[in-house]
Write a structure and sequence with these properties.
This protein is an alpha/beta fold. The chain has three domains: 285 residues, P-loop containing nucleotide triphosphate hydrolases (Rossmann fold), CATH 3.40.50.300; 130 residues, Cytidine Deaminase, domain 2 (3-Layer(aba) Sandwich), CATH 3.40.140; 51 residues. The chain is 44% helix and 14% strand. It is globular, with a radius of gyration of 27 Å. The two termini are 27 Å apart.
Length: 529
């Protein structure tokens, strides 16, 4: 970075009075992005913020790998997906770095156009498709970055693509399947990116519901004093809290069971102990430290029991194949026995054997929540199970048998065969109402756990503290109507709750721009040759 560029950043720093917002969007192909952008833009304007949309395909991908100039939406979208895959293969964070470079460029132009002043700006990034892109933007912009996960049902995606975008049904199917999960390491990873969101929003039959959800999110970001969690948000936060007690070597999963908006059980994935429940660390006999009982949790033993057992199975199968195949080659076909056990073992290990989970010592979080009910003589029938991760097929069958009527999850679990094995008793979706013939498995919608304390706590937020009453006990806001739920909130003077000054991320953004420019130069030079 030259001294001139450093001075430019310093001058920008001096004119930015209000914190910027970087709002990333993640959602499947076929999402009604105009509805999302216009709603955010309109609500942000009430707070005095101007929205700047950054279309990743147009602003970054097309800059690095020019896309075909065509009116065919399918051809253009497919080309953008392919170009994005190629660019991520070069560097997995390249598109996120390009977003940072675009933000820096637009900020500079805004300041120049406004003769040195800087308006309140919110950059809306449409859209992110890979977990590394989210991690990169979080690293650069820290708490100034918010990720919104936008969920549409397959039906609505297809309607939007076919009716609004004029794409035929066969090509719609291709786009949806590719967007959800490509086999390439640097391909589209929408489902794996979605669960990283700070907020989850559903586009349903009524656009008014989507608009209301988006407005509520922004009201929370700007510190509305009377916005509190829904029960779903509260229960899911408890599920994530429960997950933190897990000492599992692979992942932390938490679960909560509730009935009639009362929590009746919690669970986490960890090793079971005699007498019931899971292990907790305890004070040593000398009371000098807190320790786990020897050979209790997995980290106190020989490692991952499931991985160890799968290795032994693969080795056993490879050895048996090698013995039998070598005998056939040498004695029946007269060929030299060239079978290498280590090659066979690798091939077997990379097969669907890798999906086996039955050799884990840990009790799954969902099962522990159900067992918690059993230990305490509480029925789980007609309850709702909140889980941080989509249940595996083993847990799913017990969830169904226990009488749970609804399952809410955040993170997808691709290895689960639950929808396939139990299509008679499980239905995926977010449609309203109870399905008497099925247990409904639905993605979580609302404020996610990442921002829970920051947006809902009066005193424990990383941002400013919130007061709900004056010193003489009156409400800090007046109601618009005496018996109404709406308040006269002066949005034009509201401040971002967790304010991140430009100086806090200026250096990180500057380095990101430098890295992006270097990558762009390398790609352009390669194309020229």
């Amino acid at each position: 970075m030259t001294s001139t560029e450093s001075e430019s950043y310093q001058s920008i720093q001096e004119v930015i009075e209000f914190p910027e917002l970087v709002i990333g969007l993640v959602g499947a192909v076929g999402t009604d992005w105009p509805l999302i952008y216009e709603t955010l833009k309109n609500r942000l304007s009430g707070f005095g913020y101007e929205a700047e949309e950054i279309r990743v395909s147009r602003c970054v991908i097309d800059d690095l790998k020019p896309l075909p100039k065509t009116n065919d939406v399918f051809e253009r979208t497919w080309a953008a997906m392919s170009a994005g895959d190629e660019l991520r293969a070069e560097e997995s964070t390249i598109l996120a770095l390009g977003v940072a470079a675009t933000i820096a460029e637009r900020r500079k132009k805004r300041i120049e156009a406004n003769e040195g002043s800087h308006p309140r700006l919110a950059y809306i990034v449409n859209s992110l498709k890979h977990p590394d892109e989210v991690k990169c933007l979080r690293r650069i912009y820290s708490d100034a970055f918010y990720l919104l996960g936008i969920f549409s049902s397959d039906k609505r995606q297809r309607i939007f693509l076919e009716d609004e975008q004029n794409i035929d049904s066969d090509n719609v199917k291709k786009l949806i399947e590719r967007d959800a999960h490509e086999e390439e390491q640097h391909g589209q990873r929408t489902s794996q990116t979605f669960h990283l969101a700070d907020f989850f929003v559903y586009i349903g039959e009524q656009p008014s519901e989507t608009k209301a959800a988006l407005r509520r999110i922004l009201d929370l970001v700007f510190g509305h004093p009377y916005k509190t969690p829904t029960f779903d948000e509260y229960a899911m936060f408890l599920a994530f809290t429960a997950s933190l007690r897990s000492a599992d070597l692979s992942r932390q999963v938490g679960a909560v069971i509730a009935k009639d908006e009362e929590v009746i059980a919690t669970g986490a994935n960890d090793a079971p102990k005699a007498g019931g429940g899971l292990y907790w660390p305890e004070y040593s006999s000398s009371r000098e430290k807190i320790v786990d009982k020897p050979r209790s949790r997995d980290y106190t033993r020989e490692g991952d029991s499931n991985a160890n057992e799968k290795r032994r199975i693969a080795k056993d199968i490879a050895h048996r194949i090698e013995q039998n195949l070598s005998d056939v080659l040498e004695h029946q076909l007269g060929l030299p026995p060239r079978v290498k056990p280590e090659v066979l073992e690798r091939v077997i290990s990379e097969s669907r054997l890798s999906d086996i989970t039955e050799y884990f010592r840990v009790v799954h979080a969902e099962m522990e929540a159900l067992l918690c009910c059993a230990r305490n003589n509480v029925s789980a029938r007609q309850g709702t199970l909140y889980c941080t991760t989509f249940p595996c097929h083993n847990c799913a069958k017990h969830i169904v048998a226990a009488g749970i009527r609804r399952v809410v999850y955040v993170e997808p679990y691709a290895k689960s065969k639950a929808p396939e094995f139990h299509d008679d008793s499980i239905r995926l979706g977010v449609e309203k109402g109870v399905d008497e013939g099925h247990v409904v498995f639905e993605p979580f919608m609302g404020v996610g756990p990442r921002k829970f304390f920051d947006l809902f706590s009066l005193k424990l937020s990383a941002g400013y503290e919130i007061e709900r009453k004056t010193s003489d006990g009156r409400l800090v806001l007046d109601r618009e109507q005496e018996d109404g739920d709406d308040f006269e909130w002066p949005v034009n003077t509201a401040r971002v709750r967790v304010s991140v000054p430009f100086i806090a991320y200026a250096d990180r953004e500057r380095e990101a721009v430098k890295e992006f420019n270097s990558l762009r130069e390398r790609i352009q030079n390669a194309s020229a040759h």
